[in-house]
Write a structure and sequence with these properties.
Length: about 270
Amino acid sequence: MRARSAVFDLYGDHLTEFGSWAPISSVVTLLGSCGIRPAATRTAVSRMVTQDWLAPARRNGVRGYLATPAATARLAAAHQRIYRPVEVPWDGRWRVIVLDRAGDRAQRDRVAATLGYLGYGRLAAQTWVAAHPNPELESALGPLGVGWQSFAADHLGEPATLAAQAWDLTDLAARYHGFLDRYAELVAGGRADLTPEEAYPIRAELVHRWRSFLFIDPELPAGVLPQGWPGNAARALFLEAAETLRPAARTFVSDTLALAGAPLTGAE
């Protein structure tokens, strides 16, 4: 687990209910429970300030960092996708993006990563397709300096064939099977007996691994996916495990914030 990803997970999964702010000492402690070194955490936070994801802020005289409006919007959208329990309805039309120009390799890589996160798959060098419109498209692509055209289209062929061309569904299915294999025992055995200090890093890893699917799963409708698709079972397992671990993990977060003298905005 990288420090930057762990900071995003912490702010998105826990700190929103505490005012989206935390002392740097608390961030270091919480990530430290996941095996991340203090220096790596501080470097990640510093870079996230430069990238306008976090902003320095003091509360009650305590130095800390606040999620910026851009981060808050991105984290809210990610949180909705992470914990969504059901499939998004599909209107049967594909959303197509045609990029105006490729740019250099670094720009192409950034654009590809962004479009993948937004649910798009590549049909051709400059052409991408998704099953659903994404309200983040303009705000996500605009800063990357690339022009594009978008439109909705009807596919005259077999939808499953188009999906198999745009996405590596075999690899995605294998990743879901790996997730199920890794965490099935966690759900089967129940973990209500874990202490807060034990529950937080386990849940942090669980959410971190599940969040990675946001970058590779286009959330295709069931009728387009292969039979026996493991994504549904993986989602059900994740939601159950995350809910089981949530109370104890939340306690560890609130106790860590309180220990640093942080005002527990939004705490119960």
